[in-house]
Amino acid sequence: MTKRALITGITGQDGSYLAEMLLAKGYEVHGLIRRASTFNTVRIDHLYQDRHEPDARMFLHYGDLADGARLVTLLAQVQPDEVYNLAAQSHVRVSFEEPEHTGNTTGMGATRLLEAVRMTGLHCRYYQASSSEMFGASPPPQNELTPFYPRSPYGAAKVYAYWLTKNYREAYGFFAVNGILFNHESPRRGETFVTRKISRAVARIRAGLDDVVYLGNIDTVRDWGYAPEYVEGMWRMLQADEPDDYVLATGNSCTVRDFMITAFEHAGLDWEKHVRFDEQYLRPTEVDALIGDASKATGRLGWKATVHADELARIMVDADIEALEHAGSSWIDAPRVDGWVAAPAAR
Ligand code: NAP
Ligand code: G4F
């Protein structure tokens, strides 16, 4: 029997890798996409086949996590075996600018989707994209027993969604799990997250298109892993015998500064000549250190991260250099998105 999955956030970094992996495993994949005035499917275009093709197995549906009624009609239509809720306003700095929107999408969006599952009476398995950002000010190493202390509207919204997921498991017997994922990156990472901002800047500086990049706090510590490995962990959580919550992380620590040095050195550049500080990239409250302990996922799911920050920085720099070398002039001339906001004033 072909399994059917529904992915919210399929156009994002993780959604694209998850769709790729599930298609390779033989799944039929359905994705929720937002209507936009420009195409927003660039990360999954390589997977798309016209629905009239006899072997088409990926189908896209318009909808939004802010629209609960649509989630009900969509679930009733698709009848998925597995639901992966990856959609969110996922940028921490932006969540300070848009706390209400972030709460509505990242927090309430999960409630609407869980309610849609309940109202349609489906017996599907449900994955919630929870985040290490929920640990916030709790010191590392963090695992499934570490208390939450969110430091941003985004972190607070994820804590709410986490507890809703757990509550539906306990109240209604849902097979609902929280994957508490530490930072994971890739060449498909959004351009305003710090790793991609750095790798993209390195490629542009090396090509002579830019001279400097502006960053905020480079002393924070993160546990950066490689996104394709993390979507495998999401899938394993839904194949377990019992629903439970799991941390996915590498267990290694790296400062933004060290990631940046590795990225610049890999391209033969001296970072001190090209990196400047801009306070606009600071956060009103910061999460100083996230370092995860994924031993529960390793022991029970057999999941382990193999790519760590140094290798990741090199993978991302190589990919951005190659993308730049193969890009047409449209990519090179495109407005530079050099921060958490692409407003002209910020360029
Ligand atoms: P991402 O690249 O920012 O993708 C977010 C996705 O959510 C996009 O497909 C976006 O659609 C969609 N979306 C946003 N608002 C929506 C709405 N109102 N209705 C429907 N779809 C909406 O994020 P990611 O890095 O792939 O992360 C996936 C999930 O894991 C997110 O929930 C994130 O918070 C969480 N997470 C990520 C990490 C990490 O390090 N990457 C770590 C822990 C947790 P558009 O393309 O139309 O914008
Ligand atoms: O790349 P970031 O924006 O990622 P952050 O805030 O850790 O959040 C990411 O990981 C979370 C998991 O822990 C996810 F839940 C969330 O959705 C997202 O994927 O920032 C990383 C660090 C921060 O300490 C930030 O202050 O880099 C610092 N930083 C320094 N300069 C910067 C910049 N961050 C950004 N985005 N841009 C800068 O110029």
UniProtKB/TrEMBL annotation:
Catalyzed reactions per annotation: GDP-alpha-D-mannose = GDP-4-dehydro-alpha-D-rhamnose + H2O
Cofactor section: NADP(+)
UniProt keyword annotations, A-Z: Lyase, NADP
Gene Ontology MF annotations: GDP-mannose 4,6-dehydratase activity; NADP+ binding
Role of this protein: Catalyzes the conversion of GDP-D-mannose to GDP-4-dehydro-6-deoxy-D-mannose.
PANTHER family: GDP-MANNOSE 4,6 DEHYDRATASE, GDP-MANNOSE 4,6-DEHYDRATASE
Record family assignment: Belongs to the NAD(P)-dependent epimerase/dehydratase family. GDP-mannose 4,6-dehydratase subfamily.
Name of the protein in its database record: GDP-mannose 4,6-dehydratase
Organism: Georgenia yuyongxinii
Upper classification of the organism: Bacteria, Bacillati, Actinomycetota, Actinomycetes, Micrococcales
Name of encoding gene: gmd
